[in-house]
Amino acid sequence: MPSWFSSSAAVARVVTGRLSSFSRGLSRKKNKTAWISSMTAPVVEMNRFQEAVKKRELNSSDILVLPEYVGKALRPCGFGSKLMVFNQNAHYTFNGFSHSDDSSEFIYKGHLLAALAVSEHTFDYLKFAFPDARVLLTPNGVDGGTFFPGSVRKKKQIAFMPRKLPGSIVQVLQILQGRGSLKGWDLCPIDGMAEAEVAEVLRQSAIFLSTCHDEGFGLPPLEAGASACLVIGYTGYAAKEFMRPEYCYPIAQGDVLGFAKTLEQVILEFNLSPTRLLQQAADYAEFLGNNYSKELEAKRVVAAWMEIVPPGDQRRCLPASAVRNLKAAAVST
């Protein structure tokens, strides 16, 4: 379980099958999906905090939801379980492919129960690339209990994530440093912080610089907007659905000069009279709270799963021993 946020979700681990490398050119990480193509069903070990570990053998009535980033390493299931892809970034879909590879047997082409897309951009990408695939939209939401406007007046502080397109960040800030436009403003890089620390920085900051790049959704500008920051920068294509120009300052992807000019204009207005900008940021936080809440995300996810698996087809998870008993009973009858 990741340590940078809290969660009560169970962690599932495949305890059958050997690991193999990703397809050439993908990464040095291990491909933990090699067992999917095996004809022998693996055992999955599920562990939830302060609960006993549960084990069960997968079978044809199970649905496996796989990540999109392993790309070409995704393959049809050998032991009969139904497959889905939770696609959080469409730009990773073809990881591992070369321009000349044959993709006719790719998992998205007839081997999926459905794919879940977290943004309109990802949805449009998948539907265009795979017209016959079943794609359901389940947009991300922002945790309003963590990211919300603060009760204290905003500081003249600019928050940004230095790991995202650092070249753009350096150019924009160096241009404005040289022009003297950042005088009286603090720069706050968000790096190596826990989620609660990030939220506190965003509540304090008047401006957030978005350097999204080829995003599947673009959560940082969403969290910044929910914290009543003035969001300026790139949408990474996916975040354009909520980085609306009436609330934000979206910049054409890679337009460093336009980025610097826009940031300078916002700073100048804030220095003279921040009232309009603060109201704009407050309105944006309200808009996001109404349209991108965790409650709405939950409803959309449940609705998608109700469509995929109607209530009459749902069942509770059975341990491996119970599955073997059911199989034995089926053979005897």
Protein architecture, described:
A 5-stranded parallel beta sheet has the order 11-10-12-13-14. Strands 6-7-8-9 form a 4-stranded parallel beta sheet, sandwiched between helices. A 3-stranded antiparallel beta sheet has the order 1-4-5. It folds into 2 domains: 11-141 and 296-332, no CATH class; 155-291, Rossmann fold. The longest helix has 17 residues, at 256-272. It is an alpha/beta fold and 333 residues long. It has helices at 120-129, 166-179, 195-204, 219-226, 256-272, 275-291, 294-308, 320-332; strands spanning 11-14, 20-21, 30-31, 43-47, 54-57, 63-67, 82-87, 114-117, 135-137, 155-160, 186-189, 205-212, 230-235, 249-250.
Radius of gyration: 23 Å
**Which sheet architecture does the biggest sheet show?**
5 strands, parallel
Shape: elongated
- How many DSSP H or I helices? 8
> Distance N terminus to C terminus?
43 Å
What's the domain count?
Answer: 2
Average of per-residue pLDDT values = 88
DSSP strand count: 14
What percent of residues adopt helix (DSSP H or I)? 25-40%
Q: Please list the strands of the largest sheet in the order they lie side by side.
A: 11-10-12-13-14
The stretches of 5 or more residues where confidence is low (pLDDT under 50) are 18-29, 322-333
Class derived from helix and strand content: alpha/beta
Q: Estimate the strand proportion.
A: 15-25%
- Helix-strand topology string: EEEEEEEEHEEHEHEHEEHHHH
Topology overview:
Layout: E1 11-14, E2 20-21, E3 30-31, E4 43-47, E5 54-57, E6 63-67, E7 82-87, E8 114-117, H1 120-129, E9 135-137, E10 155-160, H2 166-179, E11 186-189, H3 195-204, E12 205-212, H4 219-226, E13 230-235, E14 249-250, H5 256-272, H6 275-291, H7 294-308, H8 320-332
Parallel strand pairs: 6-7, 7-8, 8-9, 10-11, 10-12, 12-13, 13-14
Antiparallel strand pairs: 1-4, 2-3, 4-5
